[in-house]
Design goal:
The protein has one domain: MetI-like fold (Orthogonal Bundle), CATH 1.10.3720.10. Helices cover about 75% and strands about 0% of the residues. The protein contains 11 helices and no strands. It starts with 13 loop residues before the first helix and ends with a helix. The relative contact order is 0.15. The C terminus is likely disordered.
Length: about 240
C-alpha cells in the first residue's frame, strides 16, 4: 500500500511521479497556450484593423510559419546549443531550462492559428457601425482596437486557446520522449515513457499509465474546446443580432 501503482526502475513511486509529471505537462500546456493566444491576438488585431501592407506582411509571415513542418521544426529548435546563441552558460545549463525552452519554442511557432482567426473576425467587426462611429468621433486606433473590437473576440480566442492546450501537451510529450524536452530527473509524462521503453514487457504499467494520461488529457481539452465553442457561439450571435 505504500506504492499503489508500484515503483519505477529506480524505486521511485510511480503514482507520485505521475502526479508531478502531470503538473509539469499541464503547466507547459497552460503557459504556452496563454503566450500563443497573446502573440496571435496582437498579430491578428494589427493585421485585421490596419490592413494594407501591414496585413500583407503579417499574413505572409503567418503563411510561411504554417507551411513549415511543425514537428521537425520543433526538434531542430530543441537541439540548438543555447550557449552558441549568446545564452549565459549558467542559464543554459539550468536544471529547468528544458521547461522554459519548450514554452519559448511553442510560443514562437504556435500562434498562427489564433492570428488568422482573430484577423478574420476583426475584418468583419471593423465595418460595424459602432466602430465606424468611433472612428468618426476621432477615437484613437489603439482605443478602438482594445476597447471596442477586442471584447467581441473573447469567445473565439478562448475556444482556440483551449483547443491548443491539448496539442501543446502532445508536442511536449513527443519532445520529452525524444530526450529534447523536459530533462530527467524532473518528471513529465513524455520522459516517463522514455524511461519505460526498455521495461515494457517486464513492467507495462510504466509505459501504459503515462501514455493513458496523455491520451485522456489531450482528448479532454479537445472536448472542452468543442463544448465551449457550442456554448459561446450562440451567445455571440445573439448579441450581434441584438
Amino acid at each position: 500500500m505504500e506504492h499503489p501503482l508500484g515503483t519505477d526502475e529506480l524505486g521511485r513511486d510511480l503514482l507520485v511521479r505521475l502526479a508531478y509529471g502531470g503538473r509539469v505537462s499541464l503547466t507547459v500546456g497552460f503557459v504556452s497556450a496563454g503566450a500563443v493566444a497573446v502573440i496571435g491576438t496582437l498579430i491578428g488585431l494589427a493585421a485585421g484593423y490596419y490592413g494594407g501592407w501591414l496585413d500583407s506582411l503579417l499574413m505572409r509571415v503567418t503563411d510561411s510559419v504554417i507551411s513549415l513542418p511543425l514537428l521537425p521544426l520543433l526538434i531542430v529548435l530543441a537541439v540548438i546549443d543555447l550557449e552558441k546563441i549568446g545564452i549565459p552558460a549558467e542559464l543554459a545549463n539550468h536544471k529547468d531550462i528544458g521547461f522554459y525552452r519548450i514554452i519559448v519554442i511553442v510560443s514562437l511557432v504556435g500562434w498562427t492559428g489564433v492570428a488568422r482567426l482573430v484577423r478574420g473576425s476583426v475584418l468583419a467587426i471593423r465595418e460595424q457601425p459602432f466602430v465606424q462611429s468611433a472612428r468618426a468621433l476621432g477615437v484613437p486606433a489603439r482605443r478602438i482596437i482594445f476597447i471596442h473590437i477586442l471584447p467581441g473576440l473573447t469567445s473565439p480566442i478562448i475556444v482556440a486557446t483551449t483547443l491548443s492546450i491539448g496539442n501543446i501537451i502532445l508536442f511536449e510529450s513527443i519532445l520529452s520522449f525524444l530526450g529534447l524536452g523536459i530533462y530527467p530527473p524532473t518528471p513529465s509524462w513524455g520522459n516517463m515513457l522514455t524511461n519505460a521503453q526498455e521495461l515494457t514487457l517486464i513492467a507495462p504499467s510504466l509505459a501504459v499509465l503515462p501514455g493513458l494520461l496523455i491520451f485522456l488529457t489531450v482528448i479532454s481539452f479537445n472536448f472542452l474546446g468543442d463544448g465551449l465553442q457550442d456554448a459561446l457561439t450562440p451567445r455571440s450571435t445573439d448579441r450581434g443580432r441584438h
